[in-house]
Amino acid sequence: MIALDELPRREGVELLRSAGLSGAWPISIALWDAPNGFNTSAKPDQQPCHVIALRLSGSLVQRVGSEAAKPERLRPEGFSIHPARQELRFVASSAIRFAHLYVGDRFLSDISGITARTVSEGDAIVPTDRVMYVDAEMSGQLDSYLRRAFEDSDPPTKLEMESRANLIALRLLRYREMQRNALVRPSGSELAPWQVRRICTYLEDNIDRPVRLNELSDMFGMSHEHLCRAFHNATGKPPGQWQLQKRMEIACKLITSSDATLTSIAQEVGYTGQSAFGNAFRDIIGVSPGQYRRTMRGRRIDEHL
């Protein structure tokens, strides 16, 4: 992981606080303050690990430089992902306070190894032609991670931060899948961003049961086939698979952060029996729920040896 003296510094930017460095947490974090903004056009950022940047207050950030397909400007509710060892140039025209979350290759590789997703150390986490994103779910996870990291009155445990980091890593791995799918998306009518968000919210609100396609298509007065195809184009998965993935992410969190029985966890995510839950979990994550729990607990034991 990254140590305090390895944190890349920008001119005019002050380190305020840090937490979880030197391997204490799977994803360490630092808070930065730039009273006059910053400009890395002449000296581009080149982070030693993957970095998720989250604006806390102040100026919006713009990505500049000829290496980008087109300039990007961060939206107020957005965040950016900086692939490791890639030269990126950013400008904040006035005062800004922001957080950097540092995600190591090894951690992502470990998560991919137990989720049947392919990622190797040194792989780019996202293509460098786009680094700024808007994702309400990820923003919520990042905000929660940030708040708990610096909760002085009730400090988080390493286990809690590891569980939260696992969810962030799973979301990052989904971006990789979506980027690959985007290269082969068929042409045709698309859903508007607000429609995609509404469908995702509905699927999450009804996570304890399978949602029928007609429930979703009736929202917008379109055919089942059109909605399923357009949602697949927008997210990389049809609605049923998207909801199933979400169920398994919740199950992963419960398995690693609680001592609840696998039967009760299955019921929590909408399965009446452990057998059906186990089969679905194995299909998505790549191992059984019990093996996943043993693997994650084994990692924690190894870290304490």
Distance between the termini: 17 Å
- pLDDT under 50 segments (min length 5)? 115-122, 181-188
CATH architectural arrangement of the largest domain:
Sandwich
- Could you please say which CATH topology of the largest domain applies here? Jelly Rolls
Could you characterize what this model shows?
α1 (105-113) packs across α3 (158-182). Mean pLDDT is 82; it is low at 115-122 and 181-188. It contains ten helices and ten strands. The radius of gyration is 20 Å and the shape is globular. It has two domains: 4-182, Jelly Rolls (Sandwich); 193-304, Arc Repressor Mutant, subunit A. The protein has helices at 105-113, 136-149, 158-182, 193-205, 213-220, 224-235, 239-257, 262-268, 274-285, 289-304, and strands spanning 14-19, 27-34, 38-39, 50-58, 61-64, 72-73, 79-82, 89-92, 96-103, 132-133. The strands form two sheets. It has a six-stranded antiparallel sheet with strand order 1-2-9-4-7-10. The chain is an alpha+beta fold and 305 residues long.
